[in-house]
Every structure is written in C-alpha cells, then in structure tokens.
Design brief:
The complex is a heterodimer of chains A (about 180) and B (about 170). Chain A is built from seven helices and no strands. The radius of gyration of chain A is 37 Å and the shape is elongated. Chain A is mainly alpha-helical and about 180 residues long. Helices cover about 60% and strands about 0% of the residues of chain A. Chain B is of the alpha/beta class. Chain B contains five helices and seven strands; from the N terminus they run αβββαβαβαββα. Chain B is elongated and about 75 Å long. The model of chain B has no long low-confidence stretch (mean pLDDT about 90). Classes of the chains: A mainly alpha (about 180), B alpha/beta (about 170). Chains A and B meet through helix 1, helix 4, helix 5 and helix 6 of A and helix 1, strand 1 and helix 4 of B.
Chain lengths: ~180, ~170
Amino acid sequence: MKKLSLIAVLLFVVPLLAQTANVKVPDADTLVGAPKGQPLTGDELTRTTQEIASTIRCPVCQGLSIADSPAEMAQNMKAQVRELLSRGYTREQIDSYFERSYGQFVLLAPKFQGVNSLVWTLPILALIFGIFVVFMKMKSLEKAPVADSGNQPPATGNSDDPYLARVRDLVKGDQQ
Amino acid sequence: MNRTVLAFGIVLAAALCAVFYLALGKDPSYIESPLIGKTAPDFALKAVGTGETVDLAKYRGKPVVVNFWATWCHPCWDEHPTLTAVSQTYGDNVQFLGVVFQDDESKITNFLRERGWAYPTLVDERGKTAIAYGVGGVPETFFLNRQGKIVAKYVGPISPDELRTDVAKAMAQ
C-alpha cells in the first residue's frame, strides 16, 4: 500500500510541482538590472511603498495613483513596488521599471525633460509675463496727463440733457 | 502695449487651436506603448486545462500573437471567435497565446469549454506579466516578430482585418 502511495506521488505530484516551479514571470532583473540599493523591511518598507505608490498612476483609473485605487490592477502594481523595495531596488529603478512598460504616462508628475519641461516652465513664464503686463500698464497710467477739467461735465449747474433735467426734477420732488 | 497683448493672445489661441486640432480623432484613453520595437518581456506561464508550462522563448523564430484577456471582460467575448478563427487560418506559421489575468481558473476553463479554443491560454497570476507588457485594460493584443520584438499593439476588441494586418507586420520583419 505504501509503495502504491509513493508511486502515486511520483507520478502525479512531482510532475505537477516541477511544472509550477518552471513558471517564470518577467523579472525586474532582466528589465532594469540588479538592485542598486539596500533591501527595506518593516515600517520603512511600508512607508516607502506608500510614498512611491502615490506617485505612480493607476493605468485603469481616472487620475488616481496606485496607492489610492482599489482596482486589482493597482493593487498588483503596488504589491510589485513593495516586492521590488524588499529586494533592494531604488526609487529610480522602480520608476524605470514601470516607465519601461507604460511610458511616462505612468508617472503622475512628469519628468523635467523634453516637451514635458514646458509643463513646469510655462506657468512660471506666464506669471512673469502677467506681472510685466500689469507693471507696464500701471506705469502708463502714472505717466498719462491729467484730463483737462474743461472737458469734464459740470458737477452742478444746468444741462441741456432733458433726461438729466427730468431726473433732477424727480429728485427735487422726492426731497420736498 | 495693447498690440503686444493682442499678439500674445493670438499666439496663445493659435497654439491651443493647433493642440485641439492635432488631438481630433484620437482616442484619449490610448497610450502609445514604449515597448514597440523592443524585445518582448519573457514569460513561462501555466496553461489552462493541460497544466503545462508554456515558455514564450520556445517560439523564437516564429511570429507570436499575445492576447491579454479575462472572462469578466465583455469585449473579450466579442473578439474570442475572431482570434480563434483567424489563428486557425495561419496554422503553425504563427503562434497565438492567450494570457488571462485577474481571473479564476475554473471560470476560464468553463468559458473555453463553452466557446472553444484553438491555442494555449495561460494564467498570469498577480498580473506580473501584464504589468511588464504595460497592459492598461483588456483586451490588448501584442504582435511579436520572429526575433521576439514587439512590432504592434492593439487595444480593444480586434476585428479580423485588423488582426490580419498586424500579423502581416509581424511576419514581414
């Protein structure tokens, strides 16, 4: 009976284990090289995972990071961040790992390079231009000559405008 | 001064119009894959039904179509007959592989029993293969040439014509 059990194990269980052992998923080693940092553990691992995950975009969500999204895809990616940190991969290597597959789209804050640098510089340039416009306008107002008082309508006195005369009559009537 | 402001406004409006014009007709959810032209990430995953491990590297020298899908994805139901039928027309000249992620193996087995299959369907546990391929949602289909380089990626349910066009790209290189 024991022999039969052993044969059953050899025939079914061992090949099954061998097959499972052969399963291979794309590994960070082949994609971004060997780890360049120290493996993290405990609270530091949890805190750093959360920090990095909050800068990586969930590809199946609308503007959410993988730290904030409950989507399974996001959770898998967050687990991947944790695993890579525990193996000693640095923040830059983890960014590169995801960027290699998804492009810069996956980073919530675009890098300061190429066309993306406009995202950082244009608002500052627009602000400087706005300040310049306001400054120039104020300067031109200061320099503008004081309006000739002769061209101003009289503050008091008669006017030929029948509408104004009518308004004055009405005001006078109210006061009496 | 007013002319400067006007000129600045015109330039800004023209730039915005150009951006909107260039974006017309494009799918905003489509992400250009940085993997195009690069060697496809290697994987060896367990096949549904047989339990065998299927290694992508084994198919080097032959064009390969890798289709990411799931049973909970309705567009995947729509494209399943297309993939099954078209894969049969290529026979051994092109290897088709289905990679299922975020799914239950028993559901996959039932799905394939009901709807039939013509090529290996592999299970991507914890979605690591999908992440390495930059999959943002299913279905997504990748086309690998004989050297194992990704030559095209298709997002969404693929039609027979689109499938043949991308397979032709993989066969040509």
